[in-house]
Amino acid sequence: MQIEEGEGFLTPEVLDKLIEGTFNVNIWPLLEAVSFKGLEYDENQDIPPFYVNFSDVLKEVSRYVLEKTPGWFDEHIRVFREQTNGMFSMEYTEEEFAE
Predict the structure, then answer these.
(1) Whether 80 contacts 87, CB under 8 Å
(2) Residues 55-82: pLDDT tens digits?
(3) Cut 0.70: pTM above it
(4) Is residue 2 part of a domain?
(5) Cys-Cys link to 73, which of 17, 28, 29, 94 (CB 3.0-4.6 A)?
(6) What is the DSSP string of the chain?
(7) Is the CB of residue 65 less than 8 Å from the CB of residue 72?
(8) Which residue segment(s) compose the domain that 42 sits in?
């Protein structure tokens, strides 16, 4: 999707597509913009193996927050219940959330 000047705002149509999971994002121009000269990888792979796996980063950040901010999960649950008017519950522990 090419974003033209003046089109930088979320429209109701874009929000609907995001919610439906049908908003098309093409990351290939980003991948092509990065130079991989001298790096060995299989060009048929979706993502080169030397990219940072952000799920690993997220786990480390979650562990750090868990250690440094006692009680954050209770606040997380409180805000969740408040935002959903108690219609939903969380069925995972703080440790499961961090994973």
Answers:
(1) no
(2) 888 888 888 888 888 888 888 888 888 8
(3) no
(4) no
(5) 94
(6) -PPPTT--S--HHHHHHHHHT------HHHHHHS--TT----TTSSS-TTS--HHHHHHHHHHHHHHHSTTHHHHHHHHHHHHTTTS----S-HHHHH-
(7) yes
(8) 12-98
